[in-house]
Amino acid sequence: MEPVEIARKAVEVASEKQATDILLLDLHGMCSFADYFVICSAETERQVRTICDEIDNALDAAGVRGRREGQTASGWVLLDYWDVIVHVFNPKQREYYQLEELWIAGKTVLRIQ
Protein backbone atom coordinates (compact mmCIF):
# COMPACT_ATOMS: atom_id res chain seq x y z
CA MET A 1 0.00 0.00 0.00
CA GLU A 2 1.11 3.54 -0.68
CA PRO A 3 1.47 5.83 2.35
CA VAL A 4 -1.63 7.86 1.44
CA GLU A 5 -3.65 4.61 1.26
CA ILE A 6 -2.35 3.56 4.68
CA ALA A 7 -3.30 6.95 6.11
CA ARG A 8 -6.78 6.86 4.57
CA LYS A 9 -7.34 3.31 5.86
CA ALA A 10 -6.37 4.45 9.36
CA VAL A 11 -8.83 7.35 9.09
CA GLU A 12 -11.58 5.02 7.87
CA VAL A 13 -11.08 2.55 10.73
CA ALA A 14 -10.81 5.30 13.36
CA SER A 15 -14.07 6.79 12.09
CA GLU A 16 -15.79 3.41 12.17
CA LYS A 17 -14.71 3.02 15.81
CA GLN A 18 -16.19 6.42 16.74
CA ALA A 19 -12.94 8.37 17.06
CA THR A 20 -13.57 12.11 17.15
CA ASP A 21 -11.88 15.10 15.56
CA ILE A 22 -9.97 13.01 13.03
CA LEU A 23 -7.28 14.92 11.15
CA LEU A 24 -5.13 13.71 8.24
CA LEU A 25 -2.09 15.93 7.63
CA ASP A 26 0.23 15.79 4.63
CA LEU A 27 3.76 16.54 5.85
CA HIS A 28 5.67 15.97 2.59
CA GLY A 29 8.81 18.09 2.53
CA MET A 30 8.36 19.24 6.13
CA CYS A 31 9.24 16.15 8.06
CA SER A 32 12.09 13.66 7.61
CA PHE A 33 10.41 10.76 9.44
CA ALA A 34 6.86 10.67 8.02
CA ASP A 35 4.77 11.81 5.07
CA TYR A 36 1.41 11.74 6.85
CA PHE A 37 0.04 12.14 10.37
CA VAL A 38 -3.37 10.88 11.40
CA ILE A 39 -4.49 12.48 14.65
CA CYS A 40 -7.69 11.52 16.44
CA SER A 41 -9.31 11.50 19.86
CA ALA A 42 -11.04 8.83 21.92
CA GLU A 43 -12.97 9.40 25.13
CA THR A 44 -11.91 6.35 27.16
CA GLU A 45 -8.90 4.06 27.57
CA ARG A 46 -10.97 1.23 26.17
CA GLN A 47 -11.83 3.24 23.06
CA VAL A 48 -8.16 4.24 22.57
CA ARG A 49 -7.18 0.55 22.75
CA THR A 50 -9.98 -0.51 20.40
CA ILE A 51 -9.13 2.12 17.79
CA CYS A 52 -5.45 1.16 17.88
CA ASP A 53 -6.19 -2.58 17.75
CA GLU A 54 -8.59 -2.19 14.84
CA ILE A 55 -6.21 0.00 12.82
CA ASP A 56 -3.42 -2.52 13.46
CA ASN A 57 -5.66 -5.42 12.43
CA ALA A 58 -6.90 -3.73 9.25
CA LEU A 59 -3.42 -2.73 8.12
CA ASP A 60 -1.91 -6.08 9.11
CA ALA A 61 -4.54 -7.80 6.94
CA ALA A 62 -3.36 -5.58 4.07
CA GLY A 63 0.25 -6.62 4.66
CA VAL A 64 1.32 -3.42 6.43
CA ARG A 65 3.30 -3.92 9.62
CA GLY A 66 3.87 -1.20 12.18
CA ARG A 67 4.97 -0.51 15.73
CA ARG A 68 3.02 0.71 18.73
CA GLU A 69 4.39 3.17 21.27
CA GLY A 70 2.73 4.28 24.49
CA GLN A 71 0.09 2.84 26.76
CA THR A 72 -3.64 3.49 26.74
CA ALA A 73 -3.43 4.64 30.37
CA SER A 74 -1.09 7.46 29.32
CA GLY A 75 -3.76 8.97 27.06
CA TRP A 76 -1.59 8.86 23.93
CA VAL A 77 -0.79 5.88 21.75
CA LEU A 78 1.30 6.22 18.61
CA LEU A 79 1.13 3.74 15.73
CA ASP A 80 4.17 3.96 13.45
CA TYR A 81 3.78 2.69 9.89
CA TRP A 82 7.06 4.26 8.69
CA ASP A 83 5.70 6.95 6.37
CA VAL A 84 2.46 7.26 8.32
CA ILE A 85 2.19 8.04 12.03
CA VAL A 86 -1.18 7.60 13.75
CA HIS A 87 -1.72 9.44 17.04
CA VAL A 88 -4.67 8.36 19.20
CA PHE A 89 -5.22 10.72 22.13
CA ASN A 90 -7.64 11.20 24.94
CA PRO A 91 -8.94 14.80 24.82
CA LYS A 92 -6.81 16.02 27.75
CA GLN A 93 -3.53 14.81 26.22
CA ARG A 94 -4.47 16.07 22.77
CA GLU A 95 -5.13 19.52 24.15
CA TYR A 96 -1.85 19.44 26.11
CA TYR A 97 0.41 18.38 23.22
CA GLN A 98 -1.40 20.32 20.47
CA LEU A 99 0.21 18.49 17.56
CA GLU A 100 -2.05 20.34 15.14
CA GLU A 101 -0.41 23.59 16.22
CA LEU A 102 3.09 22.15 16.13
CA TRP A 103 2.56 20.95 12.54
CA ILE A 104 0.32 23.83 11.46
CA ALA A 105 2.24 24.23 8.18
CA GLY A 106 1.13 20.72 7.17
CA LYS A 107 -1.56 20.46 4.54
CA THR A 108 -4.92 19.32 5.90
CA VAL A 109 -6.03 16.48 3.62
CA LEU A 110 -9.11 15.54 5.62
CA ARG A 111 -10.81 16.54 8.85
CA ILE A 112 -13.79 14.74 10.37
CA GLN A 113 -15.24 16.44 13.43
**Separation of the first and last Cα atoms:** 26 Å
**SSE order:** HEEHEEEHHE
Q: Evaluate the radius of gyration.
A: 13 Å
The total count of helices amounts to: 4
Large-scale geometry: globular
Explain this structure.
By secondary structure, this protein is an alpha+beta fold. It has 4 helices and 6 strands, in the order αββαβββααβ. The protein has a 6-stranded mixed β-sheet. α1 crosses α2.
Brief summary of the model shown:
By secondary structure, this protein is of the alpha+beta class.
List the helices and strands and how they pair.
Layout: H1 3-16, E1 20-26, E2 36-41, H2 45-61, E3 67-69, E4 76-80, E5 84-89, H3 91-97, H4 99-102, E6 107-112
Parallel strand pairs: 2-5
Antiparallel strand pairs: 1-2, 1-6, 3-4, 4-5
Descriptive terms for the model:
4 helices, alpha+beta, 113 residues, 6-stranded mixed β-sheet
